[in-house]
Amino acid sequence: MTNESVTPGSELKIIDVEKLEPAQLEKAREIASSIDVSDSQSVIQYGVGAQSRISEFSDNILSKVRSKDAGYVGETLTDLGMKVKSLKIEKLGQSSFFSGIPFVGGLVSSIKKFMSRYEKVSTQIEKIVGELEKSRMELIKDITMLDTLYEKNLEYLTELDLFIAAGQIKLEELREEILPKMQKEVEQSDDASEAQKFRDFVQMADRFEKKLHDLKLSRTISIQTAPQLRLIQNNDQLLVEKIQSSILNTIPLWKNQVVIALSIFRQKNALEMQKNVTKTTNDLLSKNSEMLKDSSVETARESEKGIVEIDTLKKVNDDLISTIEETISIQKEGRIKRQQAESELSKIENELKMKLKLVDQTR
User: What is the pTM for the complete model shown?
Assistant: First the structure.
């Protein structure tokens, strides 16, 4: 099929008849021989069947494209990505649960909170994956359907090409054989009806040419449909691959990363606990060592001391001597005072006796 130049009085031959397969060429000539240009209904209905199938086919494709919501798949994939990111694996253990609560208790609490959040997100993701799986199956069906449509479009195009080739053959026959012959007969005849018949036939030939042009337009639509079908099919295949990648790669990878993150988190906290245990052990050993040192030194000092210290004995001795001296001094002082008292008593007694004697004498 090639394009040929337009010459005066001829149409653009988009089908190279000479390059048709023998079977197709025979079929085109058979169709051309059945064309009755003088019959207006025959001209109007020429190729309508193939043309209608092309039109219905285009409408069918349009309805199928409209019925598919590719945006839904994109939104679902986006939602899947957001759900995966919402878990925020990288923030596991970043909260300050170490302060104010026991270490182990904080570790368990953090993991429980994370796992609770993971289970919620995981459930949501499983639902999304289910929707994506349904969409994937629908897209696979569409891909198969588009293959069928492509083959149908090729079939319709082949059929339409036969009608166009037959029309070109017939039109060439009209212009090069039938019309020149009729024109010659009209010129040789004085019959006005023959002239009118010739003009009517020329008009019908022009209408047939226009009808052939309509078929060529339908052919262009069919030709344009082929890459459109492949484009839609390619987009569906890309979506299927994206969905499969999400289901088979993204989700398992995400789950693996959760396991790895939890393992690293547990390792980190186990290491932290081990550091605390080591520090506590070292502190305990250091304190015990200090206590042992102090106790040993004190014990050694005490063991080297006597039962009673010399200083104590000296003090006791000094206190004893001082006590004895004070006692002797007190006793001596008491003796002197007693002697003085006795002397005073004797003096008082003598004075009393003298007074009594004077009293007796005065009687």
Answer: 0.53
Burial class (CB in 10 A: 0-12, 13-18, 19+), 145: middle
- Alpha helices by DSSP H, listed for 174-191, are 179-188
Quote the number of domains for the chain.
Answer: 2
Structure tokens belonging to residue 358 = 């004077």
* DSSP symbol at 282: H
Please tell me the predicted confidence (pLDDT) of residue 100. Answer: 42
Please enumerate in sequence order all residues whose Cβ is within 8 A of that of 135, keeping only pairs 6 or more positions apart, or say none.
Answer: 72, 73, 76, 239, 243
Is 164 a domain residue?
Answer: yes
Question: Taking the C-alpha atoms of 92, 94, 97 and 99 in order, what is their torsion angle to the nearest 10 degrees?
Answer: 160
Write the pLDDT tens digit of every residue in 63-102.
665 555 555 566 766 766 676 666 565 555 554 433 344 4
Residue 88 buriedness (CB in 10 A; 0-12 / 13-18 / 19+): exposed
pLDDT digits (tens, 9 = 90+) for 97-133: 333 444 444 555 666 676 666 677 777 777 777 877 8
Q: Is residue 253 part of a domain?
A: yes
Owning domain of residue 335: 311-363
Residues 341, 218 within the same domain: no
State the DSSP H helix or E strand holding residue 89, giving kind and residue range, or none if neither.
Answer: none
Does 142 share its domain with 212? Answer: yes
The 10 Å Cβ neighbour count of residue 313 is 11
Q: Both ends of the chain: CA-CA distance in Å?
A: 198
15 or 333: which carries more pLDDT confidence?
A: 333
Using the 8-state DSSP alphabet, how is residue 5 labeled? -
Q: What is the DSSP letter of 185?
A: H
Residues with Cβ within 8 Å of residue 31, at least 6 apart in sequence = 162, 163, 166
pLDDT in tens, 325-348: 888 888 888 888 888 888 888 888
Tell me if 3 is assigned to some domain.
Answer: no
Contact assessment for residue 37 and residue 166, using Cβ atoms and an 8 Å cutoff: no
Domain boundary among 233, 268, 303: 268
SS3 content of the chain, % helix, strand, coil (to 5): 85, 0, 15
254-277 burial, b for 16+ CB within 10 Å, e for fewer?
Answer: beeebeebbeebeeebeeeeeeee
